[in-house]
Specification:
The protein is of the alpha/beta class and 573 residues long. The protein contains 23 helices and 16 strands. Strand 4, helix 7 and strand 5 form a beta-alpha-beta unit. The structure holds phosphoenolpyruvate (PEP) and magnesium ion. The site of magnesium ion (MG) has 4 residues, from helix 18.
């Protein structure tokens, strides 16, 4: 049966393929529909798994080693009781018969329902039994996964669409090497780091679908419309045909844009606009070069620190920065110091935070761990000898932080001098404006810095108090909110007045619907994922800045959302 799910379009274009369900937890249950004739065998598989776990418990109970804690016997008895309870041994089978689904899925559904009931129990002792139920259910699930049933039929050569409840930024880095046609997730906001990485994969993707992972089954045919943020499951022939046509048109459009690669990036009235690339890993530089980026406007260095148990050494970091600087052949490379924390996590990072977005992240973490910062600063300074490297400080909020950073940079230089290690003496140092406090105090920051870079992803998050990773408030995340526009405009004005270059490196810079507005507000340097460079350049080439200035000013004053939209329509007309 065809059905449609609505979320947030993260990366444009259309993907058509078979669903592949993704689980973080390898114990998570696969989900598929059985052929009715396989149902009895599936029920028998479930019974066998229960029996396997029961006999395991029995064996253990009979061979309790001497000296083992006395609670062990009681614990094993409890697990046998749970296993025998119809809630776990019978209800999943009823579910399998009712929905013709596989045993793992029925068990997972029932476990979830049972655990939810326990969550609402007041009694602390009973609530603790929740853990026992989870452990027993996991054992049965493991037994089932050890003896898989009839897998759904899927043709290997068909494109696959990844369907996940959530994907962390570190998962996304690993997916960079995969060959999915597109992907969709239940959680995530438009500028969560997972979404940013999704865009960097340049695959059609939709996030914040809330329950796609539960509704979609392994092997379902799905259409991902990354432009509209829509997912169509099990489409009929007419819908499929329509989307195949749209997919072809989209591909043609992408091809056409490529022709702009060598055109100068300037407006109709001759204003030069710098179009830079954002990268996450050294190998991303290839795409930046291919798309003829004017430089790297944001190297998110934290990805060098993720998906590993230890920290990268100074030499390892230097090597990564060196690769990028060399590949850019004299074009500027802005390396942002470690911006980890919040939704970007790493195995070596043990800090627990009550509210990670407001906690010890980005420069706050670096300042709390000076050796970590000094190692990175030395590596960046050393890379600065090989080309025009700039160092960018993430998430500045107070001037005291900036003073500390500048002192640590001096210390890093002094230590390189002591070691006789050559480094770039004239590296420019910039700060990110991504906290409203920094935007409001931009003047003081600008006086001490060489350049500013507006991180609109976080600026919007912190201005509107909307967690950028939270799908439940993703619809409230509004780059056109008057407060956001005013903070951007104000920062640009400060830059103009004090002669400090200002760029935007958040996702707004790569959204061609906002290019003209940003030009009208005074922006002349945009940094974005390389995949968006040509679409933004196309906008730049068709813009006339002089006429955009009053229109952008009107939008900044518009206030009400419908008036803002009307102003934007005029700007883009
Ligand atoms: C931003 O906040 O806009 C930004 C560019 O940094 P990040 O997305 O990595 O937080
Ligand atoms: Mg940021």
């Amino acid at each position: 049966m065809t059905f449609t799910l609505h979320g947030i379009g993260i990366s444009g274009g259309f993907a058509i393929g078979r669903a592949q369900l993704y689980s973080h937890d390898r114990l998570e249950a696969p989900h598929y529909v059985l052929r009715p004739e396989d149902l009895d065998a599936e029920v028998a598989r479930f019974d066998a798994a229960i029996e396997e776990v029961r006999s395991e418990c029995e064996q253990l109970r009979e061979h309790i080693p001497e000296g083992a804690p006395s609670e062990l016997a009681a614990f094993l008895d409890l697990h046998r009781l749970i296993l025998q309870d119809t809630m776990l041994s019978q209800v999943p089978k009823d579910l399998m018969r009712a929905t013709v689904c596989n045993a793992e899925w029925a068990l997972a559904q029932q476990t979830e329902a049972l655990l939810a009931q326990f969550d609402s129990i007041e009694d602390a002792y009973l609530r603790e039994r929740r853990q026992d139920i989870k452990q027993v259910a996991d054992k049965v699930l493991k037994a089932l996964l050890g003896h898989p049933g009839q897998a759904p039929v899927r043709l290997a050569e068909e494109p696959t669409v990844l369907v996940a409840h959530d994907l962390s930024p570190s998962d996304m880095v690993l997916f960079k090497r995969s060959t999915y046609a597109g992907f969709i997730t239940d959680l995530g906001g438009a500028t969560s780091h997972s979404a940013i990485l999704a865009r960097s994969l340049n695959l059609p993707s939709v996030m914040a679908l809330h329950n796609a992972r539960t509704l979609i089954q392994e092997g379902d045919l799905i259409i991902v419309d990354g432009n509209a943020g829509v997912v169509i499951v099990d489409p009929d022939a007419a819908i499929l045909e329509e989307y195949r046509l749209r997919q072809n048109e989209w591909r043609l459009e992408q091809q056409k844009l490529k022709r702009l690669k060598s055109s100068p990036s300037a407006t109709l009235d001759g204003v030069a606009v710098e179009l830079l690339a954002n990268i996450d890993q050294p190998e991303d530089v290839r795409e930046a070069v291919q798309e003829n980026a004017a430089g790297i406007g944001l190297f998110r260095s934290e990805f060098l620190f993720m998906n590993r148990a230890d920290l990268p050494s100074e030499d390892e970091q230097f090597e990564a920065y060196r690769k990028v600087v060399k590949a850019m052949k004299g074009k500027p490379v802005v390396i942002r110091t470690l911006d980890i924390g919040a939704d970007k996590s790493a195995a070596w990072l043990h800090a627990e935070s009550v509210n990670p977005a407001l906690g010890l992240r980005a420069i706050r973490l670096s300042l709390a761990e000076p050796p970590l910062f000094l190692t990175q600063a030395r590596a960046i300074l050393r890379a600065g000898r090989l080309g025009p490297v700039r160092l960018l400080i993430p998430m500045l909020a107070s001037l005291a932080e900036l003073d500390q950073v500048l002192e640590l940079l001096d210390a890093a230089r002094a230590s390189l001098d002591r070691d006789g290690q050559p480094y770039g003496k004239d590296i420019l140092v910039g700060g990110m404006i991504e906290v409203p406090a920094a935007a409001l105090a931009a003047e003081w920051f600008a006086r001490k810095l060489d350049f500013l870079s507006i991180g609109t992803n976080d600026l919007i998050q912190y201005t509107l108090a909307i967690d950028r990773t939270d799908d439940t408030v993703a619809h409230l995340y509004d780059p056109l909110h008057p407060a956001v526009i005013q903070l951007i405009a104000r920062t640009l004005k400060v830059g103009q007045r004090l002669g400090r270059p200002v760029s935007v490196c958040g996702e707004m810079a790569g959204d061609p619907r906002l290019t003209r507005l940003l030009l009208g507000l005074g922006l002349r340097s945009f940094s974005m994922h390389p995949a968006h460079l040509m679409a933004v350049k196309q906008q730049v080439m068709h813009s006339h800045v002089t006429s955009l200035v009053p229109l952008a000013a009107r939008l900044a004053r518009a206030g009400r959302p419908e008036r803002v939209q009307a102003c934007l329509a005029r700007i883009n007309a």
